[in-house]
Amino acid sequence: MPIDHSAIRLDFGQGHSDKDVYDKAAAIRTQVFQVEQGYKNEFEQRDGDAAIHFIAEVPASVAAQLDSNLHGGGEYQAVAAGRIYQLLYKAEEGKPNSPAYPLEMVFSLGRICCLKPFRGQGLGHLILEKMVSTAKRLGANRLVLNAQADKVGFYARSGFTAIQQDGKDWCFEDEGNPHVGMQLLCDSE
Fold it and tell me: Residue 131: CA atoms inside 13 Å, Cβ hemisphere, count?
């Protein structure tokens, strides 16, 4: 059953300050990254008030048709999530926390996920578009993310490219799973 995009509601909130958005995003991330994919370290200090959390919600009637296990109550059900935060630089070195990023206005996007019954409906791209436009409005000129290797194409379709180190894609493992560092160069809106 295709989801009518005009019925989708996108919302975002700052860290723990917006408990409703944070709790909904945390529940989705727990299901996708910990339960489905087996990650142990899903939540970080950055998830606090430094991050902006995003959720996509669909009408509860649509959610119930696609997943009978959802019982969130209310008119809408959160089914996709993501977060952004500005990278913090080490003042004593004038460098960010990773050598791959030069000193500039950089935002990190991540934890973009969608509950399994709702995948393939464009919700991930809607969340990603909202995250990118928000970061640009905040002054970002570079967006970075760590893509699971099998999700590189998803981000490439939105203009992200692999970060190069020594002429090669910047690849690494996170909890034993291959990842690729990606970036999007952009002008602020």
Answer: 33
Answer for the pair 51, 70: CB distance below 8 angstroms, yes or no. no
Beta strands in the chain (DSSP E): 9-14, 52-59, 76-86, 89-90, 95-96, 106-114, 142-148, 161-162, 164-165, 168-169, 171-174, 177-185
What number of residues does the chain have?
A: 189
> What is the Cα gyration radius of the chain?
17
Cα separation of 111 and 113, whole Å? 6
Tokens of 72: 């969130």
Query: What does the pLDDT look like over 118-145, one tens digit per residue?
Result: 899 899 999 999 999 999 999 888 899 9
CB 127 within 8 A of CB 81: yes
**Are residues 145 and 136 in contact, defined by beta-carbon separation less than 8 angstroms?**
no
Is the CB of residue 149 less than 8 Å from the CB of residue 108?
no
At residue 96, what are phi and psi to the nearest 5 degrees? Answer: -75, 180
Report the mean per-residue pLDDT for the chain: 82
The answer on pLDDT for 93 being more than 50 is: no
Q: What do you get for the CA distance between the two ends of the chain, in Å?
A: 35
